[in-house]
Amino acid sequence: MSELTSLTLAAARDGLRSKEFSAVELADAHLLAMEKARALNAYVLETPERALAMAKAADARIALGKAGPLEGIPLAVKDLFCTEAVRTTACSHILDNFVPTYDSTVTAQLWRDGAVLLGKTNNDEFAMGSSNETSYFGPVTSPWRRKGSNTRLTPGGSSGGSAAAVAAHLCLGATGTDTGGSIRQPAAFTGTVGIKPTYGRVSRWGIVAFASSLDQAGPFTRTVRDAAILLRSMAGPDDKDTTCADVPVPDYEAAVGRSVKGLRIGVPKEYRLEGMPAEIEKIWEQGRAWLKAAGAELVEVSLPHTKYALPAYYIVAPAEASSNLARYDGVRYGLREPGGDIREMYEKTRAAGFGAEVRRRIMIGTYVLSAGYYDAYYLRAQKVRTLIKRDFEQVFDAGVHAILTPATPSAAFGLGEKGGADPVEMYLNDIFTVTVNMAGLPGIAVPAGLDGQGLPLGLQLIGRPFDEETLFATAEVIEQAAGRFTPKPWW
Amino acid sequence: MNAKGPSDKLIRGATGDWEVVIGMEVHAQVASNAKLFSGASTAFGAAPNSHVSLVDAAMPGMLPVINEECVRQAIRTGLGLKAQINLRSVFDRKNYFYPDLPQGYQISQYKAPVVGEGEVVVDLDGGGSVTIGIERLHLEQDAGKSLHDRHPTMSYVDLNRSGVALMEIVSKPDLRSAEEAKAFITKLRSILRYLGTCDGDMEKGSLRADVNVSVRKPGDPLGTRCEIKNVNSIRFIGAAIDYEARRQIEIIEEGGVIEQETRLFDPGRGETRPMRTKEEAHDYRYFPDPDLLPLEFDQAYVDALAAHLPELPHARKARFVGGFGLSAYDAGVLVAERETADYFEAVAKGRDAKAAANWVINELFGRLNKEGKDIKASPVTAGQLGGMLDLIADGTISGKIAKDLFEILWTEGGDPRAIVSTRGMAQVTDLGAIEKLVDDIAAQNPDKVAQAKTNPKAIGWFVGQIMKSSGGKASPQAVNDILKRKLGL
After folding, report:
1. pLDDT of residue B173
2. Under a CB-based contact definition with an 8 Å cutoff, are residues A148 and A172 in contact?
């Protein structure tokens, strides 16, 4: 790793402004690192020519004193974000060679602010997965390894490529999407910072949809400050997304370093799971101690409907997905497998184009929306969702500013280790994160330490709607106390 | 059959009288420049796939954004139907696969439509009226168009219509005959056109109806219905109902049962037939569209729209009858189209309204119909026709000359008064001149004079002669007066 790739986003920004190095040099260093790290399979598409052209333009703007907030910052973009003239596949065979004529609102805002595109990162197909193993392009290998072991580990999912790229210093930051934990879980597995903002904080326009009422984009970075900087560029109102809130975006970076003295931090008793590894309990305890030491008040809270969140999530999300993915039919773009008639063409195309997990979720979703089952499944799941939301509202109404939980029920596991026989085993990864999507709240995962095998563990902070600032302030306290964690290059 | 009363709606079958029960689902394309959820144009007749946005083509990551104009038009239509306006409604997805449905679902309103119950008062030809209940009105997207005849093995898809806003207006099963159904759709179309919320052009598919038909013995519970899909002319609606009612009666009377099914009307054969049978019943898996927030507006918004609603056909008809003294029939004819009523009012303003109505209905409409012209394309303007009526009223021309003048206005145009003056069409009211004509004719025809003295009806011969020799310009009243005086009648 060169010095340039080890910089934080904030430090690189300052270095570019003071012309210690150029955006082209910065991009070059990252492109070189990417080339050497192909074994990780973090990127599904590298865009070196575009990166250098963008970096050159950034240097020109810096020279003119017209630098944007992210001028010259090389970033990776999850392959779920449509990027103009750059192949976008959602890591699905069905979107083979799909090249959008448009940029998602998020990426358009990144380029507006001067960022440089290094490439598109790997993810679980259509963001459906927790280990990045459902990608049509194959799994991502985590840059982390257990002490003394060569076992290939998952970086988590679905935004596994983005998490791995940030952790392995293959970019200064990356975009992700989070429907049930797809930013926070991989962040926790890779020792990076990842935030899923409040639903409606970031426009969904131009992001391949998984479950519309749950999907939310957010950044991966190596520090809390960097996440604050990146989210500010990603967020904001958008007329093209009705569900995107017309709420001004604060200067998140200003919240970093803000004192947490006097903040009430809730600790939900329902998140203490039976059979949870002691190390998870220990890191959670440690987090509480750090925040207490920083002047926060720790209170036990109750979120009684937590246990229903995961089952309800696995009804709502597949239901929406089954409908959202209906457009991939071989008629207008992407894969088409010819058939004798239209029906056969649909069946062949969708059978060949979607992987097993995506097919499973489409079938679950179709089933729960069917006449005769709708009330028993979808409607009830929506009711559960309302109750989960109310749980949080009651806690926040009682004066709690943020809630501290583990980010994941375990550290990263090995590729191929989970979900082979029973998909629910994999779904359990999301147990601490799905509630936040169901309630539409902001949640941040921040590295808190390493387990006995040397793998990162993360803590999650859940905030009030549109109060990402408190999350940044609180997460930074943990970051300061815990330190930062970088994998040793083996690739 | 009796002339009036409900019994004339019944259909005589082998086993007695049958009542036909009809409900309609009318799809009316919202008059708006842009589609329901995208900014693409709704203009008709463009090259295939030239009015298609990324949203209409359902490209990955695209999201619908409601077009407020379409909502406004739906509310205005609801107000015109005297309907409940729902301040909160929800868009749902209706899921099914078809190549001209790019999203794989149609965005519609299922459980919570923007407009609830209302009514349409329908005047019937034989006099009297029926009130037809409106169940609901909701907004939904139209699909694209599949073209199956352009290629030997493939179908083409044109997405220009994909995403165009439709109002689905659902009637209650209150209609009892083909005539009522035709009168209902005619009235509904008229209301939509008055409101400007749908152009009502059935040829272009802007207005089409699914017709639900069932039959029963009077007083029995509702029978099983069949739905005749996508009927696109008022005449066909009538023909389809008549055929379908007969078909169902025949089946039942022969001991069969009606299968609930979807049928198509074949105008060539004048019959309905089942649509291609599907392998399984459709399950549309409706659920609220998570890409869209519930549609909400306040009562003040509705009130403001209500305040600016135009006068609708029913009120206008009442005004024409009450204010202008027109017959209900004439008033009904005049208000059927907003443009016609506007034309009439422009002609009638400050003039004899009955005379205006006569001229508009008999002469103008007759001529327009004959030449297949629309009132908007009428060569004779309301101003010209009004000017002509003024010439009749002040005695400048006779009604007979007026018909010639109308012909000139139709074919050549021009100012009526100027035409009358330059072409010497004014009637001769110079009594001296008429007297001279009378004297001359009487002198030349002593036998006719003698005849007239014994039979006053023979005076008609003199009138005819005088009109002839005056080129029709002699004032008929003056001719009569003078003749009577001269002949001593």
Report:
1. 97
2. no
- CATH number of the domain within which A350 lies: 3.90.1300.10
The two structure tokens encoding residue A426? 């994999």
Q: Which residues of A touch B40 (CB under 8 A)?
A: none
Q: Report the gap between the CA of B89 and the closest CA in chain A (Å).
A: 15
Whether residues B95 and A240 touch (CB distance < 8 A) is answered with no
Taking contacts as CB-CB distances below 8 angstroms, the residues of chain B near A120 are none
Residue type, A107: T
Q: Which residues of A touch B105 (CB under 8 A)?
A: 323, 326
Name the residue with tokens 């004959």: B370
pLDDT confidence tier of residue B8, bands split at 50, 70 and 90: low
* Domain that includes residue B459, residue range: 431-487
In this structure, the answer to whether residues B127 and B31 fall within a common structural domain is yes
Nearest-angstrom CA–CA distance, B303 and B275: 44
Kindly state whether residues B369 and B460 are assigned to the same domain: no
Q: Do B63 and A242 touch (CB under 8 A)?
A: yes
What is the pLDDT, as a whole number, of residue B303?
98
Is A233 catalytic? The answer is no
* Mutation site, A199, A332, A374, interface B, largest B CB count within 10 A: A332
A332 touches chain B (CB under 8 A): yes
CA pair distance B166, B77, nearest whole angstrom: 12
Question: Å from B37 to nearest chain A CA?
Answer: 10
Q: Distance between CA A300 and CA A95 in Å, rounded?
A: 47
- Examine the domain organization and report whether B171 and B300 are in the same domain: yes
What is the value of ipTM here, to two decimals? 0.96
Average pLDDT over residues B231-250: 96
Q: B136 with B117: CB under 8 angstroms?
A: yes
Structural domain count, chain B: 3
Residue B3 domain flag:
no
Is residue B256 included in any domain, yes or no? Answer: yes
Does B316 share its domain with B266?
A: no
* Catalytic residue check, A158: yes
Residue B4 confidence class, pLDDT cut points 50, 70, 90: very low
Catalytic entry in A22, A104, A142, A158: A158
- B296 — contact with chain A (CB < 8 Å)? no
pLDDT digits (tens, 9 = 90+) for A392-426: 999 999 999 999 999 999 999 999 999 877 888 88
- As for how many domains chain A has, the answer is 1
Domain identity same for B362 and B435: no
pLDDT band at B200 (very low <50, low <70, confident <90, very high): very high
Q: Which of A204, A242, A327 sits opposite B293 (nearest CB)?
A: A242
- Domain span at residue A234 reads 74-491
CATH number, domain of B444, equals 1.10.10.410
pLDDT tens-digit profile of A459-483? 999 999 999 999 999 999 999 999 9
Among residues B37, B111, B116, which one has the least CA distance to residue B75? B116
Same domain, B175 and B44: yes
* A482 belongs to a structural domain: yes
The verdict on B377 and B473 lying in the same domain is no
B66 within some domain? yes
A104 contacts in chain B (CB < 8 Å): 61
A131 is catalytic: no
Q: Is residue B4 part of a domain?
A: no
Residues of chain A with pLDDT under 50: 1
* A4 is a domain residue: no
Catalytic option among A104, A135, A162, A182 = A182
Domain identity same for B16 and B90: yes
> HEC states along B153-198?
CCCEEECCCCCCEEEEEEECCCECCHHHHHHHHHHHHHHHHHHCCC
